[in-house]
């Protein structure tokens, strides 16, 4: 029969399991006790760091009167500073040789150099965006062929919502290395130039009056800055104008505003008898052409 163990022997057996070296890195031996202690300490560290991040975010956002971007940046930095300091304290308190960490950090550096550079690049770009604020939540932007409203800026990527209600996740590095068009960087007032062409027989002053009247009656067109009509050029078959309007409501629906104005312009032109031109071409035939003779010459 199997010999039963006394309580002291059982404790000694369990203790030997937890204190038995599992592996060694450098001069530091890692036992089950050390590994479990590190895991518990890391869980507590990340929990505390997330609480500190939220606290700093609320504190900064209150003092900066709603400057969300800067508040998030400082909150994220405070979190990572706490994590770095906490890791150093954990390893020191467990008596882990710091030369061991140099080996680990060296391996991590090689990993970053070969496989994680994009992640690090996006993270640093995210911090730059949150501090410098070239874009912010609510802005209407255009980058890399994508245009939409910024709905969220995180440490790694920025979320953009398009007019088709499609959410696109754009890496933060795109906003640092590429050209970004911010339609609402200072305010949400934008100007649109809408081309209009009429026949040469029309009176430019009458056209100007009609276009201004159409723009004035549209609820999406701002009164200030005021709408203007530019006489652009004498075209091949038309007098060309630009109706220049300002809007806030249609910053993300430029095509819709253009369409609504064109509908109304067409109705007004039809009512006023304004002729909308179409391309005209003159065909000149050379006289004295002998078809039979010249056709035979060409074949020969």
What topology emerges from the helices and strands here?
Elements: H1 7-19, E1 21-25, E2 28-31, H2 32-63, H3 68-93, H4 98-132, E3 140-143, E4 146-153, E5 157-161, E6 167-171, H5 173-177, E7 180-182, E8 190-198, H6 204-217, E9 228-234, E10 239-247, H7 254-272, H8 291-299
Helix pairs in contact: 2-3, 3-4, 6-7
Q: How would you describe this protein?
A:
The structure is a single chain. With 300 residues, the protein is an alpha+beta fold. The chain has eight helices and ten strands. It has helices spanning 7-19, 32-63, 68-93, 98-132, 173-177, 204-217, 254-272, 291-299, and strands at 21-25, 28-31, 140-143, 146-153, 157-161, 167-171, 180-182, 190-198, 228-234, 239-247. It has a five-stranded antiparallel beta sheet. Strands 8-10-9 form a three-stranded antiparallel beta sheet, covered by helices on one side. Strand 3 (140-143) and strand 4 (146-153) form a beta hairpin. The longest helix has 35 residues, at 98-132. It is rod-shaped.
Descriptive terms for the model:
single chain, 300 residues, alpha+beta, Helix Hairpins, SH3 type barrels, Alpha-Beta Plaits, 3 domains, 5-stranded antiparallel beta sheet, 3-stranded antiparallel beta sheet, 8 helices
| Mean pLDDT over all positions | 79
The CATH C-level name of the largest domain is Mainly Alpha
Largest beta sheet, briefly? Answer: 5 strands, antiparallel
End-to-end CA span: 119 Å
**Can you tell me the overall shape?**
rod-shaped
CATH topology of the largest domain: Helix Hairpins
Low-confidence stretches: none
Tally of DSSP helical segments: 8
Helix content: 40-55%
N-to-C SSE string, H for helix and E for strand: HEEHHHEEEEHEEHEEHH
């Amino acid at each position: 029969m199997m010999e039963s163990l006394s309580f002291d022997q059982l404790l000694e057996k369990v203790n030997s399991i937890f204190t038995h070296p599992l592996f060694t890195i450098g001069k530091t031996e890692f036992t089950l006790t050390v590994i479990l202690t590190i895991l518990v300490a890391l869980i507590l560290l990340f929990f505390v760091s997330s609480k500190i991040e939220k606290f700093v975010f609320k504190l900064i956002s209150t003092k900066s009167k709603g400057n969300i971007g800067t508040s998030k940046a400082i909150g994220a930095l405070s979190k990572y500073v706490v994590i770095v300091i906490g890791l150093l304290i954990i390893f020191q308190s467990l008596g882990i040789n710091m030369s061991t960490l140099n080996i680990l950090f060296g391996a991590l550096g090689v990993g970053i150099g070969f496989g994680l550079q994009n992640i690090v690049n996006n993270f640093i770009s995210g911090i730059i965006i949150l501090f410098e604020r070239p874009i912010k939540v609510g802005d209407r932007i255009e980058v890399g062929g994508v245009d939409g409203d910024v709905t969220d800026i995180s440490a790694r990527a920025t979320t953009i919502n398009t007019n088709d209600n499609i959410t696109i996740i754009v890496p933060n590095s795109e906003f640092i290395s590429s050209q970004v068009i911010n339609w609402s960087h200072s305010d949400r007032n934008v100007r649109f130039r809408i081309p209009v062409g009429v026949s040469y027989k029309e009176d430019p002053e009458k056209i100007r009056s009609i276009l201004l009247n159409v723009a004035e009656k549209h609820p999406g067109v701002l009164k200030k800055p005021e709408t203007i009509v530019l006489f652009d050029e004498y075209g091949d078959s038309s007098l060309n104008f630009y109706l220049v309007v300002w809007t806030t409501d249609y910053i993300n629906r430029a095509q819709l505003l253009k369409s609504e104005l064109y509908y109304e312009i067409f109705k007004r032109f039809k009512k006023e008898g304004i002729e909308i031109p179409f391309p005209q071409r003159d065909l000149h035939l050379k006289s004295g052409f002998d078809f039979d003779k010249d056709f035979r010459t060409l074949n020969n």
